[in-house]
Design goal:
With 133 residues, the chain is mainly alpha-helical. 85% of the residues lie in helices and 0% in strands. It starts with a helix and ends with a helix. The mean pLDDT is 84.
């Protein structure tokens, strides 16, 4: 039941976000910068790049077509953002902490990795923005 609730939440979130982005007059300038962020949020919440890609790949592809950008680029940016978020997903941190003997040190690991994750996410967004213009 919990899995179904999460899937329903992401389905609604995807549709609401698609609607907001599609009506924005600045979507061509802003959306390529936000593409990796969608993948990043999706992986942080689901713990899986594949699940995040399933949720947001359609949104990325359709929006790319609407703004005149290669859909492959935005879908790749989504996956890149997901790969960056894998280092901060709670599931990954728990497994890594247990593997190296740092049980109950999850918050310390998260504090260190979130900095690098945000730096890489900003870099990915800027790079995607440059590639789409």
């Amino acid at each position: 039941m919990f899995s179904f609730s999460i899937c329903l939440y992401f389905y609604i979130l995807r549709n609401v976000f698609y609607f907001r982005i599609s009506i924005s007059k600045y979507r061509k300038k802003i959306f390529p910068l936000l593409s990796p962020i969608l993948g990043w949020i999706g992986v942080f919440l689901t713990g899986s790049v594949v699940n995040s890609g399933s949720l947001f790949a359609g949104l990325q592809s359709i929006t790319a077509s609407q703004i005149g950008v290669d859909p492959t680029l935005l879908v790749a940016a989504n996956i890149t953002g997901g790969a960056i978020a894998k280092m901060i997903s709670p599931q990954s941190i728990a497994v890594a902490a247990a593997a190296v003997g740092l049980v109950n040190k999850d918050s310390e690991i998260f504090k260190e990795t979130i900095k690098w994750s945000i730096i890489l996410l900003i870099f990915a967004g800027i790079l995607n923005l440059i590639l789409t213009h």
